[in-house]
Design goal:
The protein is α/β, with parallel strands linked by helices. The protein folds into 2 domains: 53 residues, no CATH class; 71 residues. Helices cover 30% and strands 17% of the residues. It contains 4 helices and 7 strands; from the N terminus they run H-E-H-E-E-H-E-E-E-H-E. The protein has a 4-stranded mixed β-sheet. The chain has a 3-stranded parallel β-sheet with strand order 1-4-6. Strand 2 and strand 3 form a beta hairpin. The radius of gyration is 29 Å and the shape is elongated. The mean pLDDT is 78.
Amino acid sequence: MKRKHLRGSTTAGRGYGKRARHAGNRGGRGRAGGGKRGQQNMMSIRAQEHRYELSNLKKVPLNLNHITDILGSLEKKDALKREGDKIIIDLAKLGYTKVCGHFGQKRIKLIVRGRASEKARNEIVSAGGEVV
C-alpha cells in the first residue's frame, strides 16, 4: 500500500520533517497546477455544469395556511382580487408556482389560478373555492 502522508509521524515518510510539510508537496492547493491547458479544460467543464437543468424557474410553493396569514399584506399590494365572498389569487403574479398544504383554523373561499397539489385542491374545493 502506497502512503504519501503518514499521519501522526513527524517525517510523513520522507525522512526529513520539513520536506513533506507544505502544499507544494501535494502539487498545490485547489486547482493549482492547471497551467495553460489545464485552465482551458476547467473552463469547458464549467460551461457544461448547467446543461442538465430543466428550467431556470424556481419552484416556490405557497402553503394554504400561509395564505391566511399574509392576506392583509397581499391586499395592500393589489396582488389579489375579490369577487363577492371569493378571493382570486394569481400565483404567477405573486412569484409562486404551486399551492400546497392545508388550511389552518380559518377557511377561505379561494379561486387559485395556477397549479395545486391534490391535498390543497381538496381543501380549496371543500371550502367552496376552485382551482383554475
